[in-house]
Amino acid sequence: MLSAYIIHLLILIGIYLILALSLQLAMGYSGLLNLGHIAFYAIGAYISAILAINGFPFFGCIIFAGIGAMIFGFLLSIPTNKLKGDYLALATLGFTFVVYAVTLNWTSLTRGPLGIPGIPKPTLLGIDFSSNLSFLILTAIIALITFLVIWQITRSPFGKALQATRDDELAAQVLGKNTFKLKSYSLAISAFFAGVAGSLYASYITFIDPSSFTLLQIIPILSIVIIGGLASLRGTIIATFIIILLPEPLRFIGFPSSIVGPARQIIYALILIAILIYKPKGFFGKVKLE
Amino acid sequence: MKKWIWIIIIIIALVVIFGFWLTNKKQNNTKEEIKIGFIGPLTGSGASWGIEQKNTLEIIKSEINNSGGVNGRLINIIYEDGKCDGKDSATAAQKLINIDKTKILMTSCSSASLSISPIAESNNVLLFAIWTTNPGFTNAGNYSFRISYSDVDTAKTMAKIIGEKYKKLGVLTEMNDYSVGVSNAFKQNYNGEIFEENFSPDSKDFKTQLTKILSNKPEAILLNPNQPGAGLEALKELRELGFKSQIYGNYFGSDGDVLKSAFAQEMVFFADPDITNTPLKQSLFDKYIAIYGEKPDFEYAVAATYDGAYILKQALTKVEYDSEKLKNYLYTIKDFNGMLGTYGFDQNGDITGSLPSAKQIVNGEIIPYKQN
Amino acid sequence: MLKIKKLKKYFGGVHAVDDCSFEIEEGRITALIGPNGSGKTTIFNLISGIIKGDEGKIFLDKKNITNLNPDKISNLGLSRVFQQAHLFDNLSIEDNLSIAINNEDIKFIKNLLGLNFDGKEKNKRIKDVLGMIGINKSPKHICGELSYGQKRLVELARAILNPHKLLILDEPVAGVNPKLRDKIKAILKDLKKQGETIFLIEHDMNFTFTVADYVIVMDAGKVIAEGTPKQIKNNKLVLEAYLGE
Question: Is B143 helix (H, G, I), strand (E, B) or coil?
Fold first, then answer.
């Protein structure tokens, strides 16, 4: 049924929404060009998968996935505190590579390149979430919680202080704000939700391997954050729907099978470029790109 | 702001409308056509063999349809790009199952097959994996079959042959799912001492690892890369470091550049199962060259695709286009005669009777290897 | 209110601040003047904690603030206006001001639960200060789009709203038109009437001598003279320092 296909797409939208909103908190609101977001996603996915395979209840898997990723987020904020712009991007990029290398080589824990197949579907409070519809409801609830938490943070004075840090860290300090604490909280919360998204991904696809979390995976998430507009939650939500759904109608346009794959990718890229040229701040962006 | 919301609504509506239109359109044909979905890497690093598999399926489709189809029904193959990525393959499977209403899926790439398997299982759709060597697929579900050997088979053959002669072995393994799968199974089946070193997929230099291995004075060395280029470089460095004894290799020995190299002289390697030079193979490859202009690089992938499609044809001829009946039929196959030899499926849906073979490189030629 | 004791700061071989000592008294406006490169801005950066001194001590209201971090020093009672505008350009005027006045924004849990917000009192203060600086733009206007003069006013307002005991201003009227200069002069005099202590750097001598109660003169990293504006105007050393420029 068409509905099963749409449910699948909505689940992916839910997972990417959590990833994009959390990256928006770190990037759009706090000014941290964090290319290590995928690493937090991977850490969450692997923690959740390893616990689930060993019989842990799903609630534990997802919470520990978030907390595990959050700890790394906090740790990453320490050496990167004094870094700005491109240097921060490079350092966080390095972190993504490190995590990738660990998932690839620590074979006794992660099974290395063979990945972890057969991850069980979640059971929560006695309810079995293995059907897609129920998984969608679970994902939607978690996405909603993510949105509410991040929304509250960004509209509170804490969120304003984050934006102050983004715009002019020195001025923020001189007004009495401990910018290190602000940035590290922001990175830690951002990482927490990325880890939660990782747990959902692992439970849904039931198979993860290091190649699921390479640097390339950050491209759609970064696109959502920028196209939606930096520091705009509304824009992030809309952009997530667009980025995930956009390639789908292309599937149905009857391209000859020999160029189906590449043609779809080229059109997808062209549409993204067109959006960026026409609306360079993204749909709802209030902040100029650094 | 309102304008943008309208654009979003239009895009979502597009997806929904297209879906409905197609579902209705296809329903007219489902009585007639037999739909098979293929999910493989049409872009990305696997595209070199993914596209060859697609080409092979196109040849088979014309062959079957030109001779009247299966019990009067024509075959339609729908191709989707899985990119060897879990979520893209899952999305492709959802679309093929729910929109195109296919009851048979053919997949390539372990990450694709493993992500799709639970979806196929819960939808009672047959999953036929063509090139999927991850040992984890053995337990993938009742509707999941694979036609490629598992890494475990390769490893068992290696362990038996190497173990007969040498008890102290150095091993160089690439951190890739194929090589690691082989290495893990090898360690469980080999009863001698092993000194293993690893390298990451983009490495160009192996002197550090090889020197470490050699310091343990192994009697023989097994090179276990995924990329043939890496294997060739390791061969070269090994000989340059002065190693004079027997070198074994995994499938990479069949690569053209390796065969030409002087360093490969007398290397014994464990190849894909023999594709004997039957008239059947000859005619397929001639057709391929005629249509696509060149010989396929991945003979095994092409042959496995061919056999896979014809096993399905045989099944479809005997029972109807019903996935439950097809599944049960496939479990009964024990002696299918195909390009890959004579084989069948065991209770896990894994292939039986098709084993990797041992070969040796002598003067740039591949000859069967007989251990003495 | 502020005491500098034998402060030294070297940049490579250059003695930017060389054994500098002075005191700022509470409740009046003190000016720091001197030729370019005499070390004035370095002194301000040392006071705010943006750079760390090599030797010497700084006391704010009798507390030792030497080498503390800028945010700690701000919370101990310092408010600063920079030479270049350091507004939060992507935020509105009222956001900039609200950030200054809200001291609980660093308490994460409190903010998460929605328990921290600008109550009536804080909002009134913001309104009062906005009225005092007299800016004719809506408070919701984004700061990045303001003119240079308007930015200076908002930055001044922000520094005033940041709870403080000492207000230090780095060239508050540099590059502003005469009308705005007079406005700023009026604001500073108003603040002094309210009991504020102000310490400023300026090159505009007219402005300085009509606004300051006390003047400290620096040259080559040292204090060469201090006194009332009248005394300084006729000080030979000061004239030499400026003429030699």
Answer: coil
